[in-house]
Specification:
Elements: E1 2-3, E2 13-18, E3 22-27, E4 33-37, H1 38-41, H2 43-55, H3 59-65, H4 67-70, E5 75-76
Antiparallel strand pairs: 1-2, 2-3, 3-4, 4-5
Length: 77
């Protein structure tokens, strides 16, 4: 997994991994990795999350402020 740049210095995201149709996200203080995919979360959201992850800012806010994203992960491990 890639280390999230956390340019704002207050993100809840620590790591991410981008795939063709998904993004895995690890949050601070959690051992769980959340898998968000096109099939569950929606391609528009996944594409936006990928951009935010690569930019290192806004990913956690995007997840927590979008109800259609927050609870729509495929699985966690």
């Amino acid at each position: 997994m890639e280390i999230y740049k956390n340019l704002s210095r207050d993100s809840g995201v620590t790591h991410y991994e981008i795939g063709e149709d998904y993004i895995d996200v690890k949050f601070i203080g959690k051992s769980t990795i959340y898998i968000y995919s096109n099939s569950r979360t929606g391609k528009r959201h996944i594409d936006k999350m990928k951009i935010l992850a690569m930019n290192g800012q806004g990913l956690c806010t995007y997840i927590t402020q979008n109800p259609s994203v927050k609870k729509n992960y495929n699985k966690r491990y």
